Amino acid sequence: MSELSSLLQADRGQPARTIHLVDPKGFDAWLGQQPPRHRAAIAAQRLKPTGFSHAILPGEAAEEWSVVGVVANTSELSPWCLAKLAEVLPAGSYRLDGGEPAAAAFGWLVAQHRFTRYRKDEGGEGPRILLTGDPARVDDIVRQAAATLLVRDLVDTGANDLGPAELEAQAASLASAHGATLMVTKGAELERGYPMIHAVGKAAGKGREPRLIEIEWGNPAHPRVAIVGKGVCFDSGGLNIKPGSGMALMKKDMGGAAHALALATLVIESRLPVRLHLLVPAVENAIAGDAFRPGDVLRTRKGITVENTNTDAEGRLILGDALTRAAESQPELMIDFATLTGAARVALGPDLPATFSNDEALAADLLACGAAEGDPLWRLPLWDAYEDMLKSTVADMVNAPEGGFAGAITAALFLRRFVPGEIAWAHLDTFAWRPSPKPGRPKGGDAYGLRAAWALLRKRYGGR
Fold this sequence. Notes:
This protein is of the alpha/beta class. It folds into two domains: 2-112, Leucine Aminopeptidase, subunit E, domain 1, CATH 3.40.220.10; 144-461, 3-Layer(aba) Sandwich (Aminopeptidase). Helix content is 34%, strand content 20%. It has helices spanning 2-5, 27-32, 36-44, 83-88, 104-110, 138-156, 164-178, 187-193, 195-201, 244-247, 255-269, 315-328, 342-348, 360-373, 407-416, 450-461; strands at 8-10, 17-22, 54-57, 66-70, 92-96, 128-132, 181-186, 211-217, 224-229, 231-235, 275-285, 297-299, 305-307, 333-338, 354-357, 378-379, 397-398, 424-429, 433-434, 444-445. Helix 5 (104-110) packs across helix 6. The longest helix is centred in the first third of the chain and has 19 residues, at 138-156. GO terms for molecular function: manganese ion binding; metalloaminopeptidase activity. One of its GO terms (biological process) is proteolysis. It comes from Sphingomonas desiccabilis. One of its GO terms (cellular component) is cytoplasm.
């Protein structure tokens, strides 16, 4: 956090290089107004009016150079428009010419982070500092950047170093730093109270036992908000084992938990006036003699029974028990994050979390916040007619319907069975992984929908 704060500082007139921004529609007019030395430099560097391109502009003296960067729209800067510059410019301080970086500072910050747990830090020339004339926004932008990097780092960590115990340690650190209450349920108590969480995780073995991690924070008189995150620290598929190609990225199956922990951190560090309830069911879906099986009928905390038709549809099982627990305290809002279905990725690709909600106002607010923050979501329906796909001949419902139709929707409908209709609820089926790099967004773990959800919470509760 302190490291990020040093990269975004109040502009007090200190020495800094100037960054000029131009967009494609204004490029020719801007170029025509430049002195000959700038036009010559632009020609030599072959600058074209395409996104993320830039050129160094010489000054009167050798040390008086500045930068021009091409962005999509100078009147509406995206969070990522400065990210490439933050990656490639020499170390030093910079300010925008005649503008305020605002949300674009977010990309500037996260672009300078590298995940170096498993390899030598190549270092670099040093930090690139961006100056802002709106210091009041610095803290929130830095917190959002830190939360995004938390998601990335947790997801990028190998499952050998991040299991249920390590997720618990992350939650414990957050609780300890802010005087929150940490509750962890495991062992016989988990089996009695949260039978689906126990069933999914019981085969993982010593040191990786399943557990439900909870944090309570805030004034009990404030509105109660529950945040839930799927914490499958590795997913082999269980006895319905995945092929090697399908298992390769399954360290990221705790991406929902990473998002939930990051959003809870934003809530707590910002002192948002809510009564926060964070819930992370943490398991490893492993294979052993005591692993749960296809055909098993599972009991649930809610009391309904589930015929397990596929051990690789385990995320919805652990979330069912966690959502039931969250609902028992009657929050006015529940949000869950989960790397839940491949069907959502087939439909929407990696960039758009499939978003479901039982509340029209909540859905509209979430989508609007995502658009405003440059963190887009896409709504899919809780299509009631597909409830029939969840029917079982031996239990109250199945966890994975046959046929593969509408996989993201039927998974969301399964979760809805554990959410009382009077509680506003949103479910984000997010990928938590970037398959190819973009400026400020390296290949690997990433946050999708985090800033949208944070903007929603700020909008609803920040003014209280």
